[in-house]
Amino acid sequence: MSFLAGVLFWFLRLPTKIVAWHRLPGGLLGGLAVGGLRHVLREENLVDTEKLTPADPTPDPDDNSSRTYDGSYNDLTYPTMGQAKTRRFARNVPLRYAYPEDEPAILQPSPRTVSLELMTRHEFQPASSLNLIAAAWIQFQVHDWFGHTTTDAGPWELELPDDDPWHEHPMRVDRTAVDPIWSPDEGIPPAYINTSAHWWAGSQIYGSTDERSKQLRSWEDGKLIIGEDGLLPVDPTTGVDITGFSENWWMGLSLLHTLFTLEHNAICDGLKREYPSWNDERLFHHARLINAALIAKIHSIEWTPGILAHPAVQVGMGANWWGLFGRWVRTNVGRIGSSEILSGIPGSRADHHSGIYAMTEEFTSVYRLHPLIPDEFSIRSRSDDTEIMRPALTDVVFGNSRKRLNEMFEKGMSMEDAV
Predict the structure, then answer these.
(1) Burial 299-313 (b: 16+ CB within 10 A, else e)
(2) Between 363 and 62, where is the model more confident?
(3) Which of 36, 52, 93, 87 lies closest to 363, judged by CA?
(4) Cα–Cα distances in Å, from 396 out to 180, 212, 218, 389, 400?
(5) In angstroms, what CA-CA distances link 116 with 175, 211, 341, 364?
(6) Dist CA 186 CA 139 (whole Å)
(7) Phi/psi at 211 (nearest 5 deg)?
(8) pLDDT digits (tens, 9 = 90+) for 305-337
(9) Is residue 321 a contact partner of residue 297, using CB atoms and an 8 Å limit?
(10) CB contact set of 261 (below 8 Å; sequence gap of 6+)
(11) Is 285 annotated as catalytic?
(12) pLDDT band at 212 (very low <50, low <70, confident <90, very high)
């Protein structure tokens, strides 16, 4: 970022020295102040856990205009940046604060006690400004962004009181695996590998490996596999939909994965009409780019302002996508220069700021919104709002998800009603 822009953002954040950004009068002032704070966070709160050196990449020519399955070559200067199962999580805190405690200190107080005391739901408190799609959406996104591996070294074991209802005593919790090439000689805390591509790439739909991604493709007109019933195929062993990532599965995820698989195929149809000479490979990769951009746009200017319904967030996220000149100028005139400040992030220069591009451990810790999931669900008809069924949470998870969808269709609900 230029010196002039840095000075500008320094002035923009001055009001926050006096009052918190969310208490500033008017959405515009708060939004500008948030922009200043974002600049500070980008410069001071992105901390590498590994060093990449520039490489002389020799990518396939198609890698210059499409995403690879595993996220490699998204940055041609550093081909492995953001690559699935290769690159570490970064940090949002100085590394000297990121060293884990040793046993037994790490288990004091007991994580089970902390969970019960601070996180037990005694009564569901609905977020009245949102619907359940918001909860499904954030899990849908998280499954694109990050995942940890577990170690074979044995689980954590938590001693429990005799009257604790947990099904096993002691409670066993898998340990996260440290990057196998990490060494204390690096002079940094233990670091961990992301099993997903760090990039915002729709990998929850498309997968993060060559093998998985190719299993999902129909190999005709660029499309993904979809059943004759308009639903994703089902794994006969688990009863769960076959898609890029299907852990922690429930009905809300099934609907979103199905919706964006159908969207991918619809994009392929549109591209095929416009570019009839394109082959299956080119149609697939261009449709993926468009679909991933659509997902990013929905998250940036619809989901985030919806869940954080504050005037400053409305202004800030709008400027984040469209730039300070706003949507009308961006849509009707186009970009004015390459700066994200004036015309938004899409189409601006790549800028990794103070660290290589990577999801952070702190991000994975806080980006959890489980309280949005209710204990039971009211499934209603779109046409007349009558209740079709009222399943409990346990009735819509894992293999039960498809069973409930099939029951809905048997009761006359269409796929359009469901999604």
Answers:
(1) bbbebbbbbeeebbb
(2) 363
(3) 93
(4) 37, 25, 28, 11, 5
(5) 20, 41, 45, 21
(6) 34
(7) -60, -50
(8) 888 888 888 888 888 899 888 899 999 999 998
(9) yes
(10) 205, 224, 226, 232, 243
(11) no
(12) very high
Strand partners, 158: 171
Cα dist from 55 to 36, 79, 81, 176, 192, whole Å = 34, 7, 11, 30, 23
Running DSSP on this structure, what letter comes out for residue 352? Answer: -
The backbone region for 13, taken as left when phi is positive above 0, alpha when psi lies in -120 to 50, beta otherwise, is alpha
Query: Which residue out of 22, 39, 143, 353 is catalytically annotated?
Result: 143
pLDDT > 70 fraction of the chain, expressed in percent and rounded: 94
Count CB atoms within 10 A of the CB of residue 172. Answer: 12
What is the number of alpha carbons within 13 Å of residue 190 lying toward its C-beta?
Answer: 11
Residues in the chain, how many?
419
Q: What is the pLDDT of residue 415?
A: 60
The answer on pLDDT for 292 being more than 90 is yes
Sequence letter at residue 296: A
Contacts of 183 (CB under 8 A, 6+ apart): none
Indicate the pTM of the whole model.
0.90
Of the listed ranges 7-21, 32-46, 328-342, 398-412, the least confidently predicted one is 7-21
Q: To the nearest 5 percent, what fractions of the chain are helix, strand and coil? A: 45, 5, 50
Could you tell me the two tokens for 212? 């998985």
Structure tokens belonging to residue 280:
């299956």
How many of the other CB atoms lie within 10 Å of CB of 130?
Answer: 15
Contact, 393 vs 377, CB < 8 A? yes
